[in-house]
Amino acid sequence: MRTKNLLKKLFFGVLWIIAILFAVALGFWLIDGRSPQAYVISHMFHKTTVEEYEKAKVETTDNSVVEIPGSVKFPREVTEYKVGMMQVFEVPAEDDSKPVVLYIHGGAYKNNFSALHWKAMAEWAETTGCGIVTPNYPLLFRYTVKDAFPLMLQLYKQLLERFPAKRIIMMGDSAGGGFSLALAQVAVQMDSIDVPGRLILISPWVDVMGGDDKLQKYDTFLNLKVLRLVGADWAGDMDVQDPMVSPLNGEMAGLPPTDLFTGTWETFYTDIVETFDRMTWDEVDVHIHVKKKMGHVYPLWPCPEGAEARKVISGIISSHKF
What we know:
Blueprint: H1 2-32, H2 36-42, H3 50-57, E1 79-83, E2 86-91, E3 100-104, H4 115-128, E4 131-136, H5 145-162, E5 168-173, H6 175-189, E6 198-202, H7 224-235, E7 258-263, H8 269-281, E8 286-291, H9 304-319
Parallel strand pairs: 3-4, 3-5, 5-6, 6-7, 7-8
Antiparallel strand pairs: 1-2, 2-4
Helix pairs in contact: 4-9
């Protein structure tokens, strides 16, 4: 009897704790406008300082070979190959009725894949049955856009030999989102290659000298002062305003249906809205998905807002017709 009473008290005690935690989380969400997880994650980021940038610039670590984290499991076997010097990972589509996503990862053109990238790609491959092709493109501070862009263009051309252009979704986050947009713009301009079927751009870095200084106080991730230095490094001897580097300055007409994702508390927000406006003006079928008080690349975050955005992206991929 005593054991039963003890277990009963323990059970109701646990229920009370769960109820209190739920009430606290709900109250926090109502007051702050974000989930507690999003609040915590946003304050876990570290802004790169100028001193850290200068230190990183003299380091020439070879990042040409990476491995998928052992904790990340894709639903189908991953193959690995090279395009020139560039390492490429590919997960086949479930069948020929599914699209193929060419995913270009972010990281300010100097950082390689993060665990969040791999987890998101594995999730989309699982939930939609799509194929995933993701390149480990050349990064700073060994290389510049002049080294990376030709290899990316070569990879895209090789994909066109295997898949209809309409089946390919070009997708990327942050620097990878800007890279995706620039690559699609080049495809529009070239008569010899077809334009991909769709673009999905997550917090794209569309102007390496841009960003909204007024939003810097809200952005717990990005340091515009450092990013503008990095942007100039990525451009190398090219003009930083060249559309290959800053696709906000490129032609939008002729681009495929596009989805833009952004949070109102990221310094890129203003540039992304301007990208949306320019695409709309040039009659691109474009949709912008804005989340209040969320930061840079929030769709990749492990929080309810991120999960919701990834679900929306899954829907976009699944509904893609070609």
